[in-house]
Amino acid sequence: MDDIIDYIPVAGDIYRAAKFGWKLGSIANDLMYGHNQLLQRAYNYLQASIKSESIRDTKRNAEYALQLLKKCDDSKKYQMAYKYTMQSQCHYLLACCNMTLDEGSVKSEFRKAIWKLRELSWIEVTWFTTNADTIRELQAEGEDYKMQIIEAKREWTQQDKKRHPWKYMRWWIISVIFIIFIIFFMYA
Predict the structure, then answer these.
(1) Do 12 and 78 sit in the same domain of this protein?
(2) How far is 109 from 48, CA to CA, in rounded Å?
(3) Which residues of the chain are modeled with pLDDT < 50?
(4) What's the pTM?
(5) 19 is in which domain, residue-wise?
(6) CA distance linking residue 177 with residue 21, whole number of Å
């Protein structure tokens, strides 16, 4: 559609100028005000979390980044894409920290990380989407990252089954007790 409008003499010029002006004003507004500052601060906490030497500092910085991302309004699609990508990375870092520290819920953090990447893949890119190429790149990277998270979750589950076999057998135990209870009352 953009190519067709470009060949119309006056309308093409007006369309290109309006489109450029709208994008320029939108980006300038985001940089000076609003939620890109929150995204930038969250990104800084995420980078500090990645570069941290201490596991406790990594976990604390990832939690700070998640708190800032919850406050961030995702009124534009590229903001949503950045937000979901960073939230997924934060949840993945929290899962790794919880694995190492043996505290917290590792499985739910993995689940949240994968869910945020699914939400990222659901963002629709149209002609009028600002930073459409960036969103497509984040979605492509998100698919690779999702496979990495799924593989890490699978490996952790296998290791956890070896360390805590009763935790994974409890549903079998509960079902056997339930069946014995039913049989007992059927014959009583």
Answers:
(1) no
(2) 19
(3) 1-2, 5-6, 10-12, 17, 21-22, 24-25, 28
(4) 0.69
(5) 1-33
(6) 70
Tokens 């076999």 identify what position?
Answer: 165
Q: Do 28 and 78 belong to one domain?
A: no
Cα–Cα distance measured from residue 47 to residue 61, given in angstroms and rounded to the nearest whole number: 9
Residues in the chain, overall count: 188
Residue 74 phi/psi, 5-degree rounding, is: -105, 70
**CB–CB of 94/109 below 8 Å?**
yes
- Report the distance separating Cα 81 and Cα 74, nearest Å: 9
Encode pLDDT of 161-178 as tens digits. Answer: 787 777 667 778 888 888
Domain count, the chain: 2
